[in-house]
Amino acid sequence: MCGIVGYIGSKQAYQIVVKGLKRLEYRGYDSAGIALYDGNNLNITKTKGKVADLEAAVFKDDNTHGSIGIGHTRWATHGVPNDVNSHPHYSNSGDLAIIHNGIIENYEALKQELKNRGYVFKSDTDTEVLVNLIEDVQLNEKVSLSKAVQIALNQAIGAYAIAVFDVKNPSELVVARLGSPLAIGVGEGEYFVASDASPFIEYTANAVYLEDGEMATINLSKDIEILKIKDGAIVDPYIQELKINLEQIEKGGFDHFMLKEIYEQPNAINDTFRGRLLPEENIIRMEGVDSNIKKFMAAKRILIIACGTSWHAGLVAEYIFEEFARVPVEVDYASEFRYRNPIINKDDIVIAISQSGETADTMAAIKMAKDKGAFVFGVCNVVGSSISRETHAGAYTHAGPEIGVASTKAFTTQITVLALIALRLAKEKGSIDREQYHYHLYEMEQIPKKVQEALGENDNIKKVAEIYKDAEDFLYLGRGFNFPVALEGALKLKEISYIHAEGYPAAEMKHGPIALIDEKMPTVVIATKKGHYEKVLSNIQEVKSRKGKIIAIINKGDTVVRELADHVIEVPETREAFTPLLTTIPLQLLSYHIAVMLNKNVDQPRNLAKSVTVE
Ligand code: F6R
After folding, report:
1. What is the pTM of this model?
2. pLDDT tens-digit profile of 83-103?
3. Which residues' Cβ are closer than 6 Å to ligand 1?
């Protein structure tokens, strides 16, 4: 994980780098640092804590000068979060400064060799080993920084996005990537580097995304030069125009990114539909599916791989695909799939779901599936991300940047994309009748409006949050399409409020979790009319007769559950398969309000990071 930012040009680098680091804090926020070269001195300031702590430290020492600078916000892998282990790291001579996102797996062996040659190390990090290895190559082989980086990286095993400069040549910055993302912003006489484009979006709309295994030498007096790390082969830079704007990555008047992103869902889902859902013409148009329709039609099975919230979206998709397209679906945690010896047949389709498009386990699972000959289809949010490029075809969710660490709009837009694919396929296969297909398309079009209505329950949800914010455990129950929503509701609460919560299929409650129920324990039950309504009513009775408290998510106007439950939150009715898109909304808001009331850092919960680029 970790976020990296760099600047080289004629402006002062400090503001650009620090502002960029704040935008990348979603990637890690246990420590931060910056290195600036002011023409005479290399000033490195590092501190445990957030970028705001770094700013205070930099100002104290007045280390803000220089037009070349690199900065880092960390999610610790090797070495505890403290000042010394924070990046940037510098070489023994004090000439080279580096920032790194990733892990050098063979760092112990490399460190020992360097120690044998007299190098000393201050930190416990793999990164300090890498910068000294680069220096060692540079000095011994008398090569340029860029050549030294190439040689050193060929000795390193692991994953990285790095930026390194040498104070002896301060008009040059060398960057490289393997397994961790890296974007280069190309301005007028200035360049920016970062883990994603958000740090430089207000300065330039032109960006080059390095591919895995590539490095670039950015020299102010030359054109940008890209090479393959392995063999030095020259690659032509492909400069693309960015489509995101500043407003999309700022809070826009909301207290937290998470809340903003929850409220963005009606628009985000509309954006997911745009150009694809065409009820008037009775069609769904999706380039990635249309151009591979034969493969989809021939698929005997669909394997879905993902992690966390994206895995929950995969579980919802299992129900949707089986319902409409009548194709068997298996959903796997990418981290389990990659370490099993899964059976993949040539007629299987693998669908990988990832908001960030950078999750290490999902990426590794994709590579393995490809090696076994599978056709891999990606469902990603971040355009140009590693997973979107590694897959054979795919469909973007178009949810816009998701900054809050707890995933919200990514989840609902993933379900939307997957439902579109399932219906598209169902029509082609004839597994849904024409009339039903038509109704579903029209009903889907209504979803953004209905999500907006569901958001209207916010004040009611806030009151419920106030009552239960001090509970120590929560149980979430749902059946059928809404079982994965129960899992997702529990995950949202856990990750931002640190309250223990479990999601269960409602009928499983009596096989164990029922023992937890007492008068203190709130149970959140998804009890919408479509889908095993009567059975869920019985589950509610079972909780009530053990004095448990019920918070029920019901359809508007349902008086039966209203009578039974302690609290109800209403969502509009829709077709059963689309209910997760509505029932998720109150669960997101409930966890949000509880976390805010408990004074937790909603956008940056402890120990987490937005983009999990380590396994
Ligand atoms: C939870 C959350 C995580 C991610 C998971 C996968 O709110 O955000 O569980 O869903 O780390 O991330 P992506 O979707 O980027 O692969």
Report:
1. 0.80
2. 899 999 999 999 999 999 988
3. 307-310, 354-356, 359, 362, 406-407, 491, 495, 612
